């Protein structure tokens, strides 16, 4: 799971960043893109090896993606970008792609992410636009990787391996390991029983850009799969970076069900969404811990207590998760109390 960092960092490149790939990018801009008298700035970086630059020339701007070929495979990005565009959702348009070097010239969706502007006054309109985009994307029919049992289990294993064992240095006993295994299987079976649709897989407030036309601009979609219809919706309304009351969450569920062609009972869907959200949040917590311990990126640790609140909330709503909830309490794991109170 990739997360955007420093979306508003527009410091001049030449002021502090020099490397051979940057020199190659400048040569590509001049020789292949035929841009003269241009300015290049940092646009953003993310949790992978990709980074992004903004290039301005003659009152126009583009984003240059730098994705080292030995670290990043851009073929999925290209394929998914075209699918999303064809569905009527705004994704970065690909103007030029140097596959050998891993450079891409993209349309500029701006520097303002949803998270920068979300308030009680703006959220309903922003989320209405986002939900429409989810429904449009779910109409995409393509041969994508399946969100299968292996992938679901691996993602949830990150919670145990990187958060419980590595980050908290907890030694789990046999019964606790069984509780985790049973919970993982419960959440996995719920996801696999649902019909499969296009899933962006990281549809949250840092990956949605505010645009004047066809809002939002959707980014970070290269890991798309076919999976649960609830996945992108719960990623949006139970965001790891911002939280909203349960009553608002359910209003957005109703908006989605009204627009969607999904034929499902409302209460059944809500449970599926809650279980799918818990799977995602277990994964996210594990990734946040891994980013710190493996990748030297500690900033995501601050998002763990909020994300844990979603896990605790779902555990308290469903009897099937009572043992998992009790185990978290025994292990003295604490969620952010303000978030937990807000989302109940």
From TrEMBL:
MF (Gene Ontology): ATP binding; transferase activity
Residue intervals of the Aminoglycoside phosphotransferase domain: 40-257
Key words of the record: ATP-binding, Nucleotide-binding
Any single Pfam family the record assigns to this protein: APH
Entry superkingdom: Bacteria
Gene3D superfamilies per UniProt: 3.90.1200.10, Phosphorylase Kinase, domain 1
UniProt protein name: Phosphotransferase
Species in which this protein is naturally found: endosymbiont of Galathealinum brachiosum
Organism phylogeny: Bacteria, Pseudomonadati, Pseudomonadota, Gammaproteobacteria, sulfur-oxidizing symbionts
């Amino acid at each position: 799971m990739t997360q955007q960092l420093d979306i508003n960092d527009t410091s001049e490149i030449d002021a502090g960043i020099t490397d051979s790939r940057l020199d190659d990018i400048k040569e590509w801009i001049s020789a292949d893109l035929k841009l003269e008298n241009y300015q290049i700035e940092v646009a953003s970086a993310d949790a992978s090896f990709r980074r992004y630059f903004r290039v301005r020339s003659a009152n126009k701007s583009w984003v240059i993606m730098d994705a080292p070929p030995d670290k990043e495979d851009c073929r999925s990005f290209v394929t998914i970008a075209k699918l999303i565009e064809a569905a009527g959702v705004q994704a970065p348009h690909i103007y030029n792609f140097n596959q050998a070097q891993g450079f891409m010239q993209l349309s500029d969706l701006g520097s303002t992410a949803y998270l920068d502007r979300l308030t009680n006054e703006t959220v309903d309109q922003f989320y209405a636009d986002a939900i429409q985009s989810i429904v449009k994307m779910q109409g995409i029919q393509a041969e994508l990787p399946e969100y299968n049992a292996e992938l679901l289990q691996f993602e949830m294993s990150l919670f145990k391996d990187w958060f419980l064992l590595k980050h908290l240095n907890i030694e789990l006993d046999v019964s606790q390991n069984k509780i985790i295994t049973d919970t993982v299987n419960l959440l996995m079976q719920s996801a696999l029983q649902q019909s499969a649709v296009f899933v962006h897989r990281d549809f949250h407030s840092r990956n949605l850009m505010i645009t004047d036309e066809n809002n939002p601009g959707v980014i970070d979609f290269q890991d798309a799969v076919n999976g649960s219809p609830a996945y992108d919706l719960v990623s949006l309304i139970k965001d790891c970076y911002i939280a909203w009351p349960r009553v608002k969450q359910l209003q957005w569920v109703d908006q989605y069900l009204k627009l969607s062609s999904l034929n499902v009972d409302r209460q059944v869907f809500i449970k599926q969404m809650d279980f799918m959200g818990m799977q995602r949040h277990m994964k996210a917590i594990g990734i946040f811990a891994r980013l710190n311990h493996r990748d030297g990126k500690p900033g995501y640790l601050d998002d763990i207590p909020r994300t844990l609140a979603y896990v605790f909330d779902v555990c308290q709503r469903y009897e099937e998760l009572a043992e998992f909830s009790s185990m978290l309490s025994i292990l003295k794991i604490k969620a952010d109390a303000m978030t937990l109170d807000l989302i109940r």
